[in-house]
Amino acid sequence: MSRRRVAAVVRREVRDFRRNRFVIVTMAVTPVVFLITPMITLFKIPDSTAGSPARGAVGVISLFLLIVPTVIPPVIAAYSVVGERDQGTLEPVLTSPVQASELLLGKALAVFIPSVAIAYVMYAIVLISVRFGAAHVVRDVVFHPPQLIAQILFAPLLALWSIWACIGISTRATDVRVAQQLGTLAGLPLLAFTSLISFQLVTPSVPLAAGLALALLALDIVGWRIVSQLFDPERLITGRAR
Amino acid sequence: MSTLNWFQRRRIGLGWRPAAWQGWVITVLAVGAVIAVLTLLRGSSARIPIAIAIFAAYAIVALATGGSRAPDVAATDEPEAVPAPRTDKQRRALRTLTARRPSSDAGPAVLVEHLTKRFGDRLAVDDVSFSVEAGEVFGFLGPNGAGKTTTVRMLATLIAPTAGTARVAGMQLAPATGVEIRKRISVMTESPGLYLRLTVAENLEYFAGLYELAHPRERIEQALAAVDLAARAGDLCGSLSKGLRQRVALARTLLSDPAVVFLDEPTSGLDPVASREVHDLIDGLRGQGVTVFLTTHRLEEAERLCDRVAILNTSLRTIGRPDELRDRLFTKTLVVRTAAPLPSPEAVFAVAGVDGWRADGGSRYVVTVSDARLAAPELTRALVDAGADVLSLAEAQHSLEDVYLELIDDTAEAPQ
After folding, report:
1. Shortest CB distance from B179 goes to which of A27, A99, A237?
2. What is the ipTM of this complex?
3. Which domain holds residue B60?
4. How far is B26 from chain A (nearest CA, A)?
5. How many domains are contained in chain A?
6. Which has the closest alpha carbon to B134: B164, B158, B168?
7. B111 strand-pairing partners
8. What is the largest CA-CA distance in chain A?
9. Sheet of B185-188: strands edge to edge?
10. CB neighbourhood size of B255 (10 A)
11. Domain total for chain B?
12. Residues of A in contact with B159 (CB under 8 A)
């Protein structure tokens, strides 16, 4: 595994999608769309409210904050293989010494970094806004340690799952749009998993959050292995399996 | 509008890479302002619409300032300025770029033995064997679907052969040697395969990284100089014409100083001047001892450039030097034209070295000979002795195209 080749792939991917207006617009608008309504709900809660409605409102915004890292990756990752094939850029790349694992890792990192960065920035904005603008009862729930740990750990792990699912679909899809739609759907089931903590349906605790994060990490590793197996240059170039 | 441009140059918003210190200052001030507003409005009923307004403003700024510089990306099919003739500067760049290789005593650059590729029921390449010597320009000809590109893809380790073996750049073709082979070769695919939102230099920089080149900047500069594109290094590839994109792809091919260069239809769609540039470049590569494996439909190109050619139509039809193939396929003939029909041609053509003759019109004769250099003087004397007014006597020329058409049944074009 060559770090230099992986870095070259990351740099190229980031340069490319940074200049793609569709990608930038989607990445800019999606978090705003997801957060605006729950933020309004959160700020409407007065100081006199009991804990239960506050927990519900925080659960919604926590869930939406976790949706952001799962819906942003398909915008870029779905394009990563099938898009390159359509554009005719995949074959020259595959004739270079880059290995499939390096190419996939570079592509995944290039999606992972902005997706997680956006998720964390959105979370930071929510935390700052709540700290200075929301009622005490809301603040107590948002700054509850298991809640914070869950958000910080789940965002990158969910993003990784979504990325591997999208790249996997992209290696077999015939069309970028199909890959995007299927990739978005593939990322969503895991949110049920994390909703348990977001909505405090199970008693949130640091060990529980860490345990769920480990389970997500295991799923991500399985996803990476499967995607590496799915990447077949012959099928990608000729449209036929070996 | 100029204000917007100012913001775009500094790249604030979500497209986001503050490209100048002003971008960072604006970003920090914006975040501070949001926090200040939310703090001041704490407990006020006005905070909800103001929060919405802040998000809306954020979205607008992000949309207006982030992302690509759209006008730069617009592709154009406008013809580019005619490229200048090949200069000494280009030749020097090519020499620097490609280390001169000693004449090979380590065997052929490419050795193919019984290579076969089957896609399901369809046989794409059938039992093909040939070798390409180091430093040779080797032409690979055949109709569409003949298996040329499939053969190149097998040799470039992109697809696995169904049967047969090959050695490429001194390495045995096998899954374990794929990376090592790809380090030693370079492939220019028929479509240039450039990233259109990246500049010319950025495209090359990507491949310099994939090849892990030691001095990428110098190599990129030399590669661009070799194809006379140094002045366009900062242009987005999406704004280049097809000819220029092809030259960028050629520069990319030269970047890694490959021992074997595979060029798949390098002049496809190029105008004559641009084609000549490519031909000159191939000649330059030959001069540097680089082995060139040229796939082409253009027979005059193959005839001009290639030391040897192979004609493929799923299986290998023939291989050899163009003149060898002509000699092999066509009998040598002399064409005689006289002012008036000969009264007794059978007597005139009964000279040493003439194997047969036929009249081709009133005063034109096609004479079959075993050796034109011996037969022509004898025949000239016989014609003069017979009192014929000879207008011309010349050896019939067969082109590579004649050879190709003789070997390829153009009605049986192989399916893709």
Report:
1. A99
2. 0.81
3. 2-67
4. 17
5. 1
6. B168
7. B131, B167
8. 67
9. B185-188, B260-264, B291-296, B137-141, B308-313, B315-320
10. 25
11. 3
12. 233-234, 237-238, 242
